């Protein structure tokens, strides 16, 4: 479904930020009510939660959060009073959280519906950005979705062909060339073309969404020592280096492929704006060592703004009261920043 244009929204007041509740069985409801009870976010935006009334009501009472649910049907009805939790109720699950329910296709579908609704609202300009709470990929699969996660689902729903996953923090930003696939499939999935696409997406979004005028990038190799001149693999010489060279020839400030064990240290020390990584854990391990608490997941290349927590559903601590809401707070703040600073409004994305 191609949806090439973003509707213009009036940003003279506070941006309206849609926040999906995520998997009801995970820590999504808890971090949501904790994040909203601080009043910090309501000073920056009008948050509108897309989720389930009973589940949120249970979270409010279990975690002793003094917010009142304000049920709305249109994001414009969002109350600016920080004492209210604005809710667009999309499901009515009637779960007994004290019985530790398991994932079902009904819960999985509700989780997916929050995302679909949020994307529709963002595409039509009724919200200025979408922030997503954590979901389980298995739950999405049980609901019949063919997508691995939000990133692929939202790209599809917005008709976006070229997109990328960025994990962003103040110290380090990483962007992934391949995302959710077996490690053994990674080498065959790397092409000069897709690496160059990710480099371009990164540069474009750093300029248009992060307000970075002249982005500097570093690119990681795939193999130990970036292949050591072909001794430990040929992907650097045959695929990655030609992509970096092509980007340099197009005038981009970019270096690589660099040895994966030192590229992150180099990037932080020299102030690179992002490191382009060849696979999921190559980027996420160093990123989460630094930004586990406050990292934000951002999808690049979309016609809408989508940020997310950097963590998952954390079933091991769900509904126990010890989940940390910092990543969600940072995801909302980044969504507000992007809504205010984006320079690509009304421009078609690929
Ligand atoms: N944005 C999203 O929707 C994401 C979803 N996932 C999904 O979540 C599920 C679980 O993934 P895992 O690999 O176990 O990662 P996870 O992030 O859910 O948990 C890893 C460890 O970190 C802890 N943790 C995570 N977030 C925390 C928080 N806010 N406060 C305190 N401790 C926290 C957990 O208790 C656990 O010990 C999987 O289905 C995965 O696909 C994973 C990452 C992001
Ligand atoms: N490791 C990041 C992750 O799994 C998040 O995926 P998505 O749901 O944002 O696509």
TrEMBL record:
Cofactor note: Binds 1 divalent metal cation per subunit.
PANTHER family the record matches: 4-HYDROXYTHREONINE-4-PHOSPHATE DEHYDROGENASE, D-THREONATE 4-PHOSPHATE DEHYDROGENASE
Enzyme class: oxidoreductase
One BP term from GO: pyridoxine biosynthetic process
UniProt-listed SUPFAM superfamilies: Isocitrate/Isopropylmalate dehydrogenase-like
Organism: Desulfotignum phosphitoxidans DSM 13687
Cofactor: a divalent metal cation
Family the UniProt entry places it in: Belongs to the PdxA family.
Protein's name according to its UniProt entry: 4-hydroxythreonine-4-phosphate dehydrogenase
Positions with a binding annotation for a divalent metal cation: 180, 225, 280
Record carries keyword Nucleus: no
